Amino acid sequence: MDVNQYMGMFLEESREHLESLNRCVLDLENDPDNLSVLDEIFRSAHTIKGMSATMGFTAIAELTHEMENILDLLRKGELKANAEIIDTVFKCVDTLEQLVENVASDDQTPLDVRPLQEKLNMLAKGEAISPAVIESINDEPSIEIGDHETNVIQNAKNQGMQAYEVQVTLREGCLLKSARAYMVMSAFDELGEVIKSVPSVDELEKENFDFSFQVLLVTGAEQEKVQQTVLSISEVEDVIVNPFSIVSSPEISLNLHNSHETKETEVIKETKEVNHNLVQGSSSDKKVKGGQSVRVDIDKLDSLLNLVGELVINKTRLEQIGITHRLVDLVETIEQMDRVTTDLQAVVMKVRMVPVGQVFNRFPRMVRDLSKELDKEINLIIQGEETELDRTVIDEIGDPLVHLLRNAIDHGIEHPDQRQAKGKNPVGEIRLIARHEGNNVIIMVEDDGKGIDPDIIKRKALQKGLITQSDADKMDNVEAVRMVFLPGFSTADVVTDVSGRGVGMDAVKNKIESLGGMVDVETKINEGSRFKIRLPLTLAIIQALLVKVCEEIYAIPLGSIDSTISITQNDIKTIQGQEVILLRGQIIPIIRLAKVLDSPEACQKQQDELFVVIVHLGDHRAGIVVDNLIGQQEIVIKSLGKLLAGIKVIAGATILGNGQVALILDIGSLLQ
Amino acid sequence: MSEKTYASDEIQLVVFKLGREEYGVSILQVQEIKRMTEITRVPHTPDYIKGVINLRGSVLPVLDLRRRLNLLSKEDTDDTRIIIVKVEEITVGMIVDSVSEVTALSQENIESPNSVVGGISANYLSGVGKQEDRLLILLDLAELIGITQETKAS
After folding, report:
1. What is the CATH number of domain A4-138+258-285?
2. What is the pLDDT confidence band of residue A134, given thresholds at 50, 70 and 90?
3. Inter-chain touch A643–B145, beta carbons under 8 Å
4. Is the bond preceding B61 in cis, omega lying within 30 degrees of 0?
5. Is B42 within 8 Å of A643 when comparing Cβ atoms?
């Protein structure tokens, strides 16, 4: 069977199910007794298993199978979802994700899933596993040996020596861990040769380990002897010595396999039955994902949208013909047509809209992992995940949000003890909020962490030569904090894995601006920071005001227009060289469009009556001076293409009723 | 010019004129030839970008080939044409003085550019074709449009 034609579907569905797995396991962690969540996990795992087996991806199928065993036991209540099981299941999901991505990228490197499978098996048997053993299993892949080590071990074996994997656990409360570790290591050196240690010897000396470490030892001494020697050192709590074999021999793994297989058939039968029950159960429970749906290639949607766009353009053309030739019948018919096209447009736009939850769903897991890794306690609150955004925006918004969240976790939220010292709740809170605001969608990432100190930002920016001292003196706090968006800026003193390499924030800003949005930051020291992203609802069809500047027609998105006024030359005052007008007691800077757009000088005439379009972006307001106002019209946004991408001030182009191309102004970059 | 396929060893060229010089681009890269139309100026672009046009509902950038090749600019005439070319998924129009014909040129009659021209715009040339007593300047469109820098930068 040629499975390639199903590949796209397989990948897409697998990813979907993995995502749902991630979400559900997280729910399970918070509520271990929730059976409906377990059911959903089971269902997803089962689907993945079925699909991958059909496609011939045995590694995925086998791993999911083992996972199912555990899940089944959990569901039957024979096992309790403790932290260990949850962690292992998470690990499985990660591994599965990687396997699926390997399939996607046609990466042939085999991933060894055996340790995980074994672990799952052990858990399934419910064996009372002492923590130390778990550790050694957990870390089994962590003693990874290279060719060199393999050779050494091989040679040693030829000389009748043995390789042992030794796990040493120091007593809790041991004061000079590095000294103890050193003693243990020298004891090993007397016995034989230490090929590798996890963590490395350097790390051990710096005390960069908890209370246990692992060593790969080649020695002529016996297992017992090794254990005795190390145990004789004071403050050593426990020593586990296991023979280390390079690769488990094929015979053994084969045997293992056979025994699996016999079991497998039984289990499959069982799961089938269970599945029946499941279907019945779930229908009365709640519809997990209601409604029927059809999967459509995004390209088809794009061309559908383009066609609708064409239709709108032609409709406008007809409208103009009707008006110029005063054809009442035509105008009436077009009014009818107008309603239909408007509906059609709305439907097509809706089809492209995707709830932002699709992106948000993967964040709880990320926050959990990161906060564990960084030893912080964080509560992620997600609001407005049903807010819909254009599919193209959804695809792009993930990475910037990951950056912002990571920053919030790493730099924003303090350690629990620090928080307590400040009188805050030791559990930090990060809010991820999405909501509509006019023609925009707002996404906010808020944390109640330590906030951003403008003075530190200034100092950093000075150090890095991004600003001069006089700049820094002039700068107010809001401006200073905004400097985090400058390229090459990073405030983290220590570059961690998580963030701090200074590539993040300007990348975030660029990405969001390329989507036609903007990002801003508000912060209060010790109270937290809020990153606010404003995105256009759709990238395709908008209402716009057409204006004339030097015989050229430009479109200004209606969403950012407050009002239009007409003023005379005398109304314009200057403040420090900046032209402003006074509107209802507010000082509004004005922008002469002809200048910004480098219009031919000849036509930059000084007419006495000026039209000003008052636009706003967030809290900023400005007046745009134009020669004439033409009128409001629905326009289809077209990109200028790759060649002309990234032009400041211009957001795109549109085709007018007469077939002429008009450019759309980018208010965001105009106001900067 | 990776796109051209050689029927035997001949390539088909669209021949156009700029002043007295004759140029050729592979017919496989040419989408269509259009009469001069209204062009909307785009601010903040290199001077050789004349603007954008509406080609049946899509917006295409148009370059002024004379400017691009550092030739003196000239008033549009009835013969002025826009050649729409597609290079590596980018479609652009090029304004030329006139389009004369489609001709076939055998591979052996094409000389590499550096052996003939040392001028400033030699970068944009992929070769010079000889046909009887006339010379056809063959353009390297990818280089000319600036795809090499643009796409790498993004």
Report:
1. 1.20.120.160
2. very low
3. yes
4. no
5. no
